[in-house]
Amino acid sequence: MTTLPLFFLLPSILGAVLAGFVCSTMGTFVVRMNLSSIGYCMSHAAFAGAAFGILISIDPMISAVLFAFATALVLGPLSEKARLESNVVIGFLFSVMIALGFIFLSLKPGEAATGRALSILWGSLFSVNYDNVLLLSLLSFALLVFVIVFYKELVAVMFHRKLAESAGINTKMFYFAVLFFTGFAVALSLKLVGGLLVFALIVNPTSTAYQFFYDFKKIMIISPVIGILSCLLGFYLSLIADFPIGAAIVIVSATGFAVSLIVSPKRKKGFFLKSKQKLDSSYK
Amino acid sequence: MEKNPAIVDLHQVDTIYEGEKIPVIHDINLTVKKNDFLSIIGPNGAGKTTLLETINGILSYTAGKGKVFGKQIKKHKNSIRKHTGYVIQNFEIEPRAPFLCKDVVMSGRSGKIGLLRFPTKKDWDIVWKSMGLVGMIDYANRAVGKLSGGEFQKILLARALAQEPDLLLLDEPFSNLDFSARNQIEILLNRVHDQYKTTIVMVSHDLTFLPTRCNRLIVMDKGSIVMDDTKDNVLQSDLVHSLFPKGGKQ
Ligand SMILES: Nc1ncnc2c1ncn2[C@@H]1O[C@H](COP(=O)(O)OP(=O)(O)O)[C@@H](O)[C@H]1O
Ligand SMILES: [Mg+2]
Description:
- The complex is a heterodimer of chains A (284) and B (250).
- With 284 residues, chain A is mainly alpha-helical.
- Chain A contains 13 helices and no strands.
- In chain A, helix 1 (6-32) runs parallel beside helix 6, helix 1 (6-32) packs antiparallel against helix 9 and helix 10 runs parallel beside helix 12.
- The longest helix of chain A is centred in the N-terminal third of the chain and has 27 residues, at 6-32.
- Chain A is globular.
- Chain A starts with 5 loop residues before the first helix and ends in a 10-residue tail after the last helix.
- Chain B is an alpha/beta fold.
- Chain B is 32% helix and 23% strand.
- Chain B has helices at 48-55, 77-81, 101-107, 110-113, 121-133, 149-161, 179-195, 231-236, 238-243, and strands at 8-15, 25-32, 37-41, 63-68, 71-72, 84-87, 167-171, 199-204, 216-221, 224-230.
- Chains A and B meet through helix 7, helix 8 and helix 11 of A and helix 2, strand 6, helix 3 and helix 4 of B.
- The complex binds adenosine-5'-diphosphate and magnesium ion.
- Magnesium ion binds at residues 48-49, 89, 171 of chain B.
- Adenosine-5'-diphosphate (ADP) is lined by residues 17, 20, 24, 42, 44-50 of chain B.
């Protein structure tokens, strides 16, 4: 396997670095804002969208983005109200999206078991091309600008949404910006990591970073570093052991999180007691 | 807009929570002038928090008219909020929250600084000054989650002060505090009221603890203002004794 020429692997390596960056940067917001279940739903919607794209023969990435956005548009306002319905709707949409994805794939004759179809499910080393890399680069750049330009607003919103609102920040705008960036991150990383597992790349590196730092700025820097390392290590693991890339990345990032739980300075006193407290219990 | 408008001016205001039918506060008439220092008192569930959040527009009133700084609350929410500090009730921070005290205090200013602007040295100076005012300057680089209840309350107050507010809304700022922390905050509020001519509207359900400079009490019960008078008059009234049978001690 390792005899493959580098230029052949280069788009995948770049893709892995960029996907790690965008997903785990969004993770810092998603985890803090308690949006995990929406994000999870969006990643499955992206999978259904990609399957739909294959069915009607358009670029699966476009339809993946559209499906993820549609989900954000439905779930965003619902969860914002923090009413009971949102959990019910999330559970409903989650299963519907998976089902739709499989139906779309099965409707396309001869497609269901092909590499292309499987790659949107659990990712593929070789499905990443330079177009993907370009899109991921653009997204990375936009995200970087967003975080730098709106850093003070983001910190205020992450600390406490109502207080941020009461200080004159339009928190709704940031809430939806986070959802839409997450939709892009999920949809564009889909080919590499796969729709079933891409959300782990959003949550795991951030959760690891949260174990070590009390400073939001440090988390914002370390989380993408962990995300990128997870992707590169997963990539290597996939190459040498012939694991599916998405699974390899998730195993690496989940192992990182498990280790961080054990060694975390934040949990020194009574790991089992404190681990029950939810990280974001005061976020409203 | 008239000259020297009242800081807060509510006229027959009702507020209904989304999805509910009955207004939680109703027919509220309230005028607060510049440099007033008043406390809203009343039993739990009387609608005190709802009234505060109607003033800064977090909740939208469903009837009547409301102005803050002479501007209509509904139309000018964000510009009103940039000059209005708010300390919410019973805010308990989770122990592992990833924020440093200085960043929390700065977050109070972020709306005022405005979009597409970075905090300048002047903004940081005001942050240091606010932290100094509450006596928490040594905690600047500490994690908020590790503070005691009283220390965190002071940081929240510093956060509101960093906004250099014209109007300060405080929701039970003395709850969760021990006696000495209460005293410190009381001294601080008196000083802010005196030196910066800040208008302060405070919610309290403990009659035994009202800052000395607070000279007006609003009594709320079941969503209405049932009394609005000087501190002495209210504290001596029969109404207060019936609403607070235990003398207002918690
Ligand atoms: N989000 C909400 N939705 C519906 N009703 C609410 C909500 N928040 C508070 N209430 C109700 O409004 C009433 C007044 O609440 P509140 O203003 O918090 O009282 P206080 O601050 O005086 O204790 C209570 O009966 C409470 O149950
Ligand atoms: Mg209250």
